[in-house]
Amino acid sequence: QNEIGGGSGLTNLPNVMTEITRTVYQDQYMIVSGNANGGSVYVFDANNPSEQPVKLTHPGGATNASFGSSVCVAREYLVVGARYDDEVSTSQGAVFVYELADLTIPPVRLQPNTTTETHMNFGTDVVGTDEFIIVGCPGDDYTGGPGETNSGSVYLFDINNFASSPTVLEPTNDQLEQEGWSGATSNDDNHWFGYR
Question: Which residues pair with 56 in a beta bridge?
């Protein structure tokens, strides 16, 4: 068993969880994600972290999707990125949206607008607000001109209607910017995504 963080009480994580990628605190929940063995996400009751957590793994059973490489909470939803998800095309990536109140309900799958592009790494980072689920996609090929590979993009999904088409933000012209590697939001409704 592993204990994380000075006195956090998380003594019931399995030993296989050797790489912890994110820890998110939201009201009554504490979410810990890691990439060991294909990825998993543990949801703890923050009021009683010594209780057995709910363990989430890739809904399709993928073992190399990097499930949990990014996590966030957006209103009543737990958002989990799987940047190497191969269900649609090689390493295109996917994001899974769970209802925090009932994690047994199958998640909603969010994915890029294309079905053919590979190595997009959609879900490398996720950010949640009251209005949007924002998804980084650093391997997206820029659609504005020839040769703009891996320029990256950021997808904004309406949190009130996951079925609606997302807004896609792309860089203006710089090749290989890889926009969408990391994201942040602030209390004044500003949202930032970085590139490398």
Answer: 41
